[in-house]
Specification:
By secondary structure, the protein is an all-beta fold. The protein contains no helices and 10 strands. The chain has a 3-stranded antiparallel beta sheet, with no helix packed on it. A 3-stranded antiparallel beta sheet has the order 6-7-10, with no helix packed on it.
């Protein structure tokens, strides 16, 4: 999913470029560098959708950022706060 200058990537991984990231990572679209994005999932992330400033995340997880989220959750792209 692309949000302005960031690309969000999901999957089944524990890090990228020696940075610990659990199943979700944000990259700068211009440089490819990891950018701050505190959301993580406890299992595989399969899909994203962006709508009205929120990033909706779907996958095989039961938690997003240590909060119960059964296979679906949403994050505010401005603040990074978990919406549900």
């Amino acid at each position: 999913a692309l949000n302005g200058s960031n690309i969000y990537i999901g999957g089944s991984f524990v890090g990228i470029d020696a940075v610990a990231k659990w199943n979700i990572v944000a990259l700068d679209a211009r440089t490819g560098q990891v950018v701050p994005f505190g959301t993580f999932a406890n299992n595989t992330v399969n899909t994203f959708a962006k709508h009205n400033g929120a990033l909706y995340i779907g996958g095989a997880f039961s938690q997003l950022s240590a909060t119960n989220a059964n296979k679906l959750g949403a994050v505010d792209l401005s603040s990074g706060a978990l919406l549900w």
